[in-house]
Amino acid sequence: MSPPDSLENERAHTFREASARSGEPGMSVIIGKDGGTKWRPPPAHPAGHILWLTGLSGAGKSTIAQMLKSRLDAGGQPACVLDGDALRQGINADLGFAETDRAESVRRAGKIAALFADSGFVAITALISPYRSDRGRVRTLRPDRFHEVHVDAPLHVCEARDPKGLYRKARAGAIPRFTGVSDPYEPPETPEIVLDTAALTADECVDRLMGYVREMIARTITTR
User: Fold this and answer.
1) Which of 57, 62, 105, 129 is catalytic?
2) Superfamily of 49-222 according to CATH
């Protein structure tokens, strides 16, 4: 009878050999208690999509994105959030707020969101992304799986909320090129869904998004 350590090594060796022979991506090997092996095919791939939340600062994009992710996680649907503020502390830290920098910020976020969607995630992207042309270019990456969500709140409502004091600083001239104050925001012309956060609570917005997500995933599965 083999000592425990040598038995584990033998099983690991069997796994490596079997994996090398399979040559099939996603295939895995189950090793039984007797050391025998059997193939297990990859699980059915969930339906990946991009939910692109766009709107003014203070409209509620980040709050809704995080709440939606929690709901999807609880239901077993892989999801991730790409938040504009978080991205600016990481991969977009080298970018400013000129129009060309904003375009590059959206391009990078779009590429990452597409990769997550290809892996079966619902990629929830929460960026102001003020220009229609930039959002349109992201749509072309995955045109059948890109869903534009306008998180809509009037400027005066966003200014009244002003959770980070950014509007106050922008009005004082401390923040140049601030969307809605000294830079334009181009609202979507034909978004897949509009969330009026001046009239709806965050929970109501997430309820509507959850209904939409269920439908879009169901459509994806039935068309495969």
Assistant:
1) 129
2) P-loop containing nucleotide triphosphate hydrolases (3.40.50.300)
